[in-house]
Specification:
This protein has about 850 residues and is an alpha/beta fold. It contains 33 helices and 24 strands.
């Protein structure tokens, strides 16, 4: 399809951002051309394709503020020119109009330039009038930020919490979080060094920072101090704090309110969709903004002056870094994953099957996104540093292997021999990846649980099994382990737990997110089960798959169990980090007599049970303090894989044998709007889900796994309507395959409309442009055509990847002539980018 002209694109971008060429019901016009050209509909329609020159001179757009005064100069260039060529002319015109801001655009590549803040910045959409008005009120002063003195009590509370009674303990449900953030009363020395490192980077002209700090070293508290530094010195009006998990939204919000509530307002975006502009700190999951590229709809590039990514190695995975590039201003990444963790990985010998290759690329993207291309973060504080300084503890690794797991881990794998239906000998081989997926062994799970309970660290106050988290392969595996552990706990502690010893904490379990909070607050399924004056969770073991990995704070954890193989170094580091925080168990005890008798109240370590040689796999440097030989499984059990079964209908079959004839034939093309029956079907489904209290509440809470699972079980394929996802897709009338989440977001007003395939391709290409900032402005239309064709067409991808470029000569989607117009370096770069960062499923029709 022929590219639209630059003029049409710029007009659309202005209108989409809320700028008006003519007065309407929303207000007076706020766009005008340079005074030498009258702005009329005829003028706009006849500026032509290359509209830099007209009979009366050069055309600029002048954008006006709410009072009608000059506000922004928009320098518009033809598509075949780099918009930066008009930089100096735009600056001159802006100064003559007393404008602080300039937009440079050729319709494909756009720059926003704050003349008081330095260089033009690539943007993927135009800022709204309201957003720039707010941005204008901020006059950054880097010198003030650099010279700000950060004392020990910069954000800490002035008094340490002191719980004198059980009632006081109960009154503060966030006690563990409170102690973690403020137990020392002051910022720690290394946290102050991290802040100074940021000030030094700003002094050198930098605006991107990466803090590499081990789990448990207080990244959130350090972030709070940095946020205050930027807000207090006027270098930020509003901060966006992005997390990668739903449960961490509330955790971050509470942390900021603890230490910044007296000075600044913090909100979670999804709970404040209408008044988030009244807050200085906005918290959100990066996934909610990325889904369907909603950040384009929700925010303007000038809405946030500082964007912070918690667990940056996760939250910029894929092309999520486009969120950070979208906003103008400072960017801060936080990560607990050191790049040095992959130091023994040989890049030149890597293959696509090596899981460390993906991790390496992800980490490289993290460092590149936050301005650390040399691989050195702005500040680093490792686990070893924390242990050496006495802030963190190291684990005791328990490497435990059975006969079954030893074979699964071996090069040859676990081999099952059997005879097929023909009586021939056959073999099937299973590896550790198949455990609890295709390979099932009840006896092995029993052994895991028995070894865990017999060797787990005990609580130093009550003597019961220390609080533990076990990581399972799947939700079904978690359910099995919970059942086994509860049965064993009944025998070890008769009458004490009543099946409350181990709890499955996964998305299939109602209230799972609250379970994680209750476990940290020591009241999961009850409390004080052994000693009435000692407040510790009745439930001792949480079994999860991935909910309690990143950022989960529970300092009194004493045991971690890896009941699954792990192939991601970042996952391994995060899981291990759940146990590294120090803790004084006397904080939960309200009996002075018992308190004085406790011999070792301080947490000095934790046990990491490794049943799949994960530590060995990642070449960790810890000493294996303890290696347990598991008892052999009983003969005849636990060695078979799951047997495949088949089935079919046994009902009668009718075969019509008579002749038949065709009487009439009529063809009708159904457009994207669909048939009326489809639209009515869709409308009925909207009513059903809107009226369902569970669905509405789950959508409001952002618990998408739960609501989708509920719809599949309770709503779809029921005899009353036979709702199904495929029918809803057809009824929606969109030229691509919608997800159920998109349909729900449209029904509940979280997105205004369904995006077409071309809408999504345009958005993906804008991310590519923001990331690589092509200098070949004249070639951008050709680059875009190539990008869209490669991303949307299996056929084009096959031609490019196979090297059969002659097939383009007869291809109706993308021709040889179009391919030749693409600069050579992009012919290879675009396929690599699309494979790495673009989800191709979204374009499926």
């Amino acid at each position: 399809m022929k590219e639209a002209t630059a003029r049409i694109k710029i007009n659309k971008l202005l209108e989409a951002a809320g700028w008006r060429f003519f007065s309407d019901s929303k207000g007076p016009a706020n766009v005008q051309l340079e005074p030498s050209v009258a702005l009329t509909k005829h003028t706009l329609d006849n500026l032509g394709e290359n509209f830099e020159k007209v009979s009366k001179g050069f055309i600029d757009f002048l954008l006006l503020n709410e009072k009608g005064f000059p506000f922004i100069v928009l320098e518009a260039k033809a598509e075949d020119k780099n918009p930066l060529v008009g930089k100096e002319q735009a600056r001159k015109y802006a100064k003559s109009q007393n404008c602080r801001f300039v937009i440079l655009s050729n319709g494909n590549l756009h720059y926003f330039w704050d003349l008081e803040r330095g260089n033009p910045y690539v943007i993927t959409s135009f800022p709204t009038p309201v957003s720039v008005t707010g941005y204008q009120k901020s006059v950054p002063n880097p010198k003030c930020l650099i010279e700000e003195v950060v004392e020990n009590d910069y954000v800490a509370l002035t008094q340490r919490p002191n719980y004198a009674s059980e009632a006081a303990w109960k009154s503060d449900a966030e006690r563990p979080r409170f102690i973690e953030l403020n137990g020392l009363r002051f910022l720690r020395p290394y946290q102050k060094r991290a802040i100074v490192a940021i000030q030094q980077t700003v002094a050198k002209g930098g605006d991107r920072f990466l803090l590499e700090m081990a789990t448990g070293t207080g990244k959130t508290l350090t972030s709070a101090a940095i946020i205050k530094l930027f807000l207090r010195t006027g270098n930020a009006r509003r901060v966006l704090f992005l997390v990668d998990r739903l449960e961490l939204e509330d955790q971050a919000l509470k942390a900021f309110r603890k230490v910044l509530a007296n000075d600044y307002k913090s909100v979670i975006y999804k709970e404040n969709r209408d008044d988030w502009r009244h807050a200085e700190i906005v918290v959100s999951t990066v996934q909610s903004l990325l889904f369907n590229n909603k950040y384009h709809q929700l925010f303007s590039p000038t809405d946030f002056d500082l964007v912070i990514s918690d667990e940056a190695h996760r939250s910029i995975g894929g092309n999520a870094r486009a969120v950070f590039d979208y906003f103008i201003g400072y960017k801060l990444g936080l990560t607990a994953t050191p790049r040095d963790y992959l130091k023994k990985f040989v890049k030149d010998k890597s293959t696509s099957k090596d899981p460390r290759e993906f991790e390496r690329r992800l980490l490289l993207d993290t460092y590149r996104t936050f301005g650390c291309e040399d691989g050195q973060p702005t500040f680093r504080y490792s686990l070893l540093d924390g242990v050496k300084d006495g802030y963190l503890v190291n684990p005791t690794v328990v490497d435990a292997r059975s006969e079954v797991t030893t074979q699964l881990l071996s090069d040859g794998g676990f081999v099952v021999e059997f005879k097929d239906e023909e009586g021939d000998d056959q073999k099937e081989t299973y590896k550790q990846r198949q455990f609890e997926k295709r390979f099932f062994s009840p006896a092995t799970n029993q052994l895991f649980c028995k070894a865990f309970l017999e060797n787990a660290l005990r609580d130093p106050i009550s003597g019961e099994i220390g609080k533990s988290i076990i990581f399972a392969v799947s939700q079904n595996h978690a359910a099995k382990l919970a059942q086994i552990l509860n049965g064993m706990a009944d025998r070890i502690f008769p009458g004490k737990y009543q099946s409350d010893f181990a709890v499955q904490v996964t998305s299939h379990v109602d209230g799972a997110q609250q379970y994680t909070i209750n476990f940290a607050n020591n009241n999961l399924l009850g409390s004080a089960n052994f000693i009435p004056t000692y407040k510790t969770s009745k439930a001792r073991v949480c079994i999860t798959v991935g909910m309690m990995t990143t950022g989960y704070d529970c300092p009194d954890i004493l045991n971690l169990g890896l009941f699954r193989p792990i192939f991601s170094p970042t996952d391994f580091i995060q899981i291990k980090g759940r146990g590294t925080r120090k803790h004084d168990f006397r904080e939960q005890l309200f009996d002075e007599t018992i308190r004085e008798s406790v011999k070792e109240p301080q947490k000095s370590g934790f046990k990491l049970f490794d049943f799949f040689a994960n530590c060995e796999y990642f070449e960790e440097e810890f000493d294996y303090d303890q290696v347990i030989k598991l008892p052999k499984p009983k003969s005849g059990t636990g060695e078979g894989g799951e047997e495949a079964t088949g089935g079919g209908s046994t009902g009668a079959i009718y075969e019509h044998l008579d002749d038949d004839i065709l009487l009439t034939l009529k063809e009708e093309d159904i457009g994207h709007g669909g048939m009326r029956i489809d639209r009515e079907f869709y409308a009925r489904f909207e009513d059903v889900v809107r009226e369902n209290a569970f669905v509405a509440a789950s959508v409001e809470a952002g618990e998408w796994d739960r609501v989708i699972d509920y719809l599949n079980k309770e709503i779809f394929d029921k005899p009353s309507e036979y709702y199904s996802l495929e029918k809803l897709r057809r009824a929606a009338g969109v030229d691509r395959r919608l997800t159920l989440r998109e349909i729900l977001e449209k029904i509940f007003g979280l997105i205004p409309r369904f995006k077409s395939k071309d809408d999504l391709l345009e958005e993906e290409f804008s991310k590519f442009v923001a990331d690589y900032k092509p200098d070949e402005a004249g070639a951008i239309p050709a680059i875009k055509n190539y990008f869209k064709a490669y991303a949307a067409s299996d056929q084009i991808r096959h031609i490019i990847e196979s090297g059969h470029l002659t097939d383009l000569a007869t291809n109706p989607i993308f021709s040889t002539r179009e391919f030749r117009a693409v600069p050579a370096k992009y012919r290879k770069l675009i396929p690599e980018y699309v494979k790495d960062y673009v989800s191709l499923n979204q374009f499926v029709t």
